[in-house]
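User: Round two. Same drill as before: sequence, then structure, for each protein.

Assistant: Same drill it is. First protein:
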Amino acid sequence: LAQLGGWSSMSLWSHVEQAPPDPILGVGVAYNADPAEKKVNLGIGAYRDDTGKPWVLGCVKHAEQKILKDTEDGKMNKEYLPVQGLQAFLDVTSAVILGKDSPLIKEKKVAVVQSLSGTGALRIAAEFLSIYKPGVPVYVSDPTWGNHHQIFKKAGLQTHSYRYLTKDMKLDIDGMLADLKAAPEGSVFIFHTVAHNPTGVDPNPDQWKMIADVCDAKKAIPVFDTAYQGYASGDLDKDAYSVRYFAHERGFELFVTQSYSKNFGLYGERIGALNVVCKDPAVATKVTSQLGLIVRAMVSNPPLHGARIVSTVISDPELFKQWDTELKLMANRIISMRQDLVDALKAIDCPTPAPIYKDWSHITSQIGMFAFTGLQAKHVDILSSKWHIYCTKNGRFSMAGLNAHNVNYVAEAMKDALVTAGPADV
């Protein structure tokens, strides 16, 4: 029977190779498979409260109650959205990143579409660039979020790296600027708006100004990837400094993504946006139309529920105030866990990752979801095999996985790993 019609019994897809496991998602798989009663997951990039549980924000619950009531009253339905997204969401999202008084928004110079969180926004941007700047080289930091390279390569663009981190976990501003200066004119530069992933090391305002100078000289196209606005410091405006400086003070045409996964806790709703800042409102209108065509071909139209939640909270003064309070709570807990971990390491005289580190202060000087500890694969292997503590092989800890109940345990494990395996190779 398999031979009928000339078909072979061999599958058409026999030549397809098994894909390697995702290095980040694989951490969660290993953690879940571990039967140990005492174990710690420091891999997942999602907020956890001090009991280690996921947290649905109060403002989200209130928004969903309003949405449910409006649905029951016949004021809302579940119809398809336009390709650009929910208008109520589009009306408010750009002001979160650019500021409610942004002249760019008032002058209609911002093209915006709803996206499948930050990843979807980057993918739309990559597709737009591949169409209108074919072959443009794309530069990302080394290290960077693991998906950056894949997203732009899937759009047919070549990615390159620029230096970002010194061996003792400081910003390599000289190396970064040198590599950006060496890039071809008109290149795309990917920047992390705030809370660089995986390092937690950000440029300061003076350094951002130097970076902007290079972008200006190179006629570069900046793409700001925004995953942690408000979650990093607890201050939405402070965390948007880099984007607002480039857009308002320096006048760059740029792309800026937004993700509401971390700062709203809406990980599974996949809600975000892509903003394209243009010099002319007529251009912005045309760019919006073309972004819509890209969305149409990719996903037809974006999902509804997450956009309703975000737009409901942002447009309601009381809910917005509650969101702002809850953002500060999340950010402050992460900041306090950084200090608690450093204090625990000091209390047991834990050696630093390598002699080039004077102390563990690099953990407290970093910001956002992750800490780049300085541990390496040989240390991480001991953490998982002996102590049932799971993180990525590069020693990146999700600080949300730490709490008052496990921070001392993690510190003890780090000391054991460093003493057993020896210092990091730097």
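Second protein:
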Amino acid sequence: MSALEARAAQHRTSARLELHQERRRKEALKRQKDARSDRSNRFRALEPEPQIEVDQQLTKAQRKKQRAFDEARQRAERWSGELCSYDWLCDIPDDLNGTNTSEGWFCMPRPEGRRVVLVASKGKVDTRQTSGDRLHQFTCDCLPGGSTRTKHKPQTILDCVFVEHSSTYIITDCMCWGGYDLYTCAAEFRFYWLRTKLAECQQEACDEDEFKLEVAPYFDCDRQGLAKAYRAPLPYLRDGLLFYHKQGHYACGHTSLVCLFKDEECTRRFNADSSGDLIAALKVIGTHAATVDGVSFPIIGESLEEPLVEGELARFVVVASNDSVCVRAERRCSPKRAVADCASKIAFFLRRR
């Protein structure tokens, strides 16, 4: 047995990677019913960013570098936290097909492009990537709060993907429309509301907007619906399929009620590098392990030139050996990345090998 295999044998992670996704979905639905969360802070996207404090004992050059690093990390944490992050679909939900009912799931072809938070308020539209960097600032007459004509209306917040070749924002979800809070509404209602209200506003719009807005199509998860989501012609390239539980609320952060599926047929980007290795962003714990969702992976191989620091995110190559999983450090993540990959992503790719 090689040294790698001997060390990996001490860390049998397959059992811990057993995700029990069906149980976690049911628990998420139960939490929705039990909780009556205060959502008054959900519009923090419109609040000014807090000031960064830097150690004054550093030199001027060091303070400048540290401030830039901390500000980039703060923006990334703030804006990535405004969006939901998906589970990967490792098993088929028991209630997948709820055609023509309020039960079951919807399937949406995920657009390929840059995912952003779109905020329309006080006569302008601001779009921010998960890094916190602004992508565009413009006016949009068909969104409440997004133009001079509609600036008196309360804000609108959307989950979108920007498709560059067509200058189009594909809307995948709606968190707030004209001040109406949709975070705690079921996906079934959010999708209906979004399509209905956007169509009404587009009819009323007076000006031609700089960018187009379109709603991503979604389908029931019966045989016909899944076939359309998987293969039907679209005005954009697919980057996998998103599955939304019809009764799922919009969760800022990780949720088990939105799942992502990918294969070679429905995406050009299959999350492996040119050598076929799986790359995952994980949080460092100590000097010899990385963790995600409570599962720890031993770090093998040579250390990076600058040692990893506990708590930071780093890119790792996932190394599977028989029934064990280890990781090999590739490089530390940019401060513009704030969210680690989930355990279900690792399990998804390991099961496909």
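The two ends are 22 Å apart (CA to CA).

User: Perfect.
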